[in-house]
Design a protein that fits this description.
alpha/beta, Rossmann fold, DNA polymerase, domain 1, 2 domains, six-stranded parallel sheet, two-stranded antiparallel sheet, 8 strands, about 35% helix
Amino acid sequence: MSARGHEPRPNRSWGTAPASGAPTRRPRRVAVARAEPLRGVLSQPPPKVTGEGASHNARGGRGPLPRNRHGLGRRTKAQTTPRPSIQAITFDVGGTLIEVWPSVGHVYAEVAARHGIKGLSARSLDRRFTVAWRAAIDFGHSRTDWAALVDATFRGLTDEPPSQTFFAELYARFAEPSAWRIYEDVIPALQALAARGLKLGVISNWDERLRPLLDQLKLGRYFEEIIVSREVGSCKPARGIFEHAVRKLRLPPEAVLHVGDSLAMDVRGALAAGLSALLLQRTAGAAKAGQIKSLRALC
């Protein structure tokens, strides 16, 4: 999970920004891989042509062959170097595969109550977390970063900062599978994609808790590679973490599709590194170009 540049949602993840108070400036439009039909993104069937060049297209070309000075067809470099098909799909984690349940504020209130700080509103803590998250600068997902964020969330509510009292328990609580919920479309999609022979991976802004958590949620077995920002020293949207992922997958970046719920962190980051990208938007409304409403759309 990451200090994302998108609208936060407090019920999504312990490291994902919460949902209220959307920024007033609209994000710039970027080109992304079209989601409709996604089968075309994965298989890339050649377009149909008729007349001159039809037989050339049937052999894998992309239209009529240009003529040389003798009137014979010749191939250009672009025509002899077809774009690689998608051979692997990588996923963000928080807000894409799993979400905090019931919400960050609920978990914060639950742990605080065990330390004598009772009666805190989960909704109020969600709002406080939103404010603290947006104020965080250069958030690197270290334990120290999280302690500072929790202290900011509880400022004025406790006599001592949580980093000096119950932060350790709170940090451990988010390593437990019971603090998370797997989205209902995740396992069917992963099973179907694996059955098609696609390599699957994770690219996530997270820490040392991620791998054990995915294993306990029985999700880790689906992924050939799990790339964690704290392990590789690079956070999304930096190119480094995506480039590390494609090296581990042993594929060119054009052969990898990344799917996540953040336009800034997932889509723009992946595109800058040469990957294809789709934005996952489970909210109501029709999917726009470059978006999917469910991971089932990948199947």
